[in-house]
Amino acid sequence: MMLIKRLCQTAALVALAISTQACAESKQSTGVEQERKVEARELLEELITFRTAKGFGQVPAMVNVLEERLKAAGFSNEDIIKVPLTIDGEEVEGLIVRYSGEENSDKSAIAFLAHMDVVDALPENWDTDPYTPVEKDGYLYGRGSQDNKFGVALLVSTFANLKENGFKPNRDLYLAFSGDEETGMLTTREILKTPEIKSVEFALNSDAGGGTITKDGTPVSFTMQAAEKTFATYIITAKSDGGHSSRPGLENAIYDLAHALTKIEDHEFPVEFNEITRLMAKNVAEREGGELAYALNALMEDPTDRQAIDIVKQYPNTSHMLWTTCVATMLKAGNAENALPQSAHATVNCRIMPGTSAEEVRGVLIDTIENDELEVTLQRGSVESPASPIREDIMGALQRAVAVNYPGVKLQPVMSSGGTEGREYRSVGIPTYGAGSLGLVRPEDSRAHGINERILLDSYYKELTYWDTLIRDLAQDAD
User: Fold this and answer.
1) Pick from 282, 292, 290, 300: which is nearest to 412 by CA?
2) Tens of pLDDT, residues 17-69
3) What phi and psi, each to the nearest 5 degrees, are found at residue 100?
4) C-alpha distances in angstroms, 23 versus 11, 12, 465?
5) CA 124, CA 141: separation in Å to the nearest integer?
6) ∠ CA 365-371-374 to the nearest 5 degrees?
7) What are 88-144's pLDDT values in tens digits?
8) C-beta separation of 289 from 312 below 8 A
9) What are phi and psi for residue 82, nearest 5 degrees?
């Protein structure tokens, strides 16, 4: 009996020791995790203070902050490549950071994208100073908190954390940060000329992934951008001899332009499906049901179905993915109230489906206007890019990373109507995919480019786990 008692006491002591050790390790782990959150938040807050909008010249200063953080984590001077560029007299920089992988690896490198510049914000329009980070109601307010300084901060924090903890990827990894994504992507194009980035197998864009959650954290939908429409702007010009307004003649540049715009308004581009938009249509039909589901299913069977087209046009948040769109956005005409106009100009912005060129659409506009006297010119060069193939290995890794924070959620490939630098990468043959699981609580939380831009801090902290999981999955430790 005494022996049994002593054995029981010994077992209890061993169990207590194990429990104490586990508790200590748990506290240590929790402490490390909390410290990482604090560091990542502090970095984001510091980045927000830089007014990296065009014309303020603050991108190089922000690059210096990122360089300092990365060097402190163990990256060398050789690992950090600055890409300087002078744009309209302003010094701008792109940034490339190499995380060296296993030597002689047969795996190609991966690029992780983000952009450091922002659309400018005017303090008088905000409830807070856009360049002073402010926490309120669980959100962090500040210009770039969503677009896209949160991506910069997360990727730099993740690279730094992995480096400090001795992670050795089995392939080279690169950060590739643009300095002018919002205003021309010239630094992006310079980055794409470097041998480091030209050789990557694919790119993951932190500016093109995420989703929506409910207030209690339940996921609603999460997307992965795999294609973009081509952005193209046309100037339509009508000219006439002008004259005194008291003697109007048969010619009037404003009327000629107005007739042209009415025809463009009435023009319908054909319904088109590709691998990605077909998946998008199926997902929307399953989620929404009703007449929209009926119309989408009908169009997948017959893209010319008139009744289905009329129904879908009532849902502009969905219909834009089905066809090229062109819309008038700006007008300029005349020079005096008592003079007939000598010229009239309209800006027409088009978002073109992959596979159709900007020149083809210019031809469609000319044919639609049916007036040889009017000029239709492409205002600036457009970048046409193909859809990226849906690869099971990449899709699987992105899905697993999302599931760490939002188990059971289904990641959906999408085509974006807006523009990101992903189009630049796709245009030179580098498949590019939106990555990230930033959860917005409701649609109005999407405030990129708008006033009172903000990010849900809980979602931001979750992204640290997302990126750590994703990078370890794609570039498993070589040791």
Assistant:
1) 282
2) 434 344 444 434 455 588 999 999 999 999 999 999 999 999 999 999 999 99
3) -65, 135
4) 18, 16, 22
5) 15
6) 75
7) 999 999 999 999 999 889 999 999 999 999 999 999 999 999 999 999 999 999 999
8) no
9) -90, 140
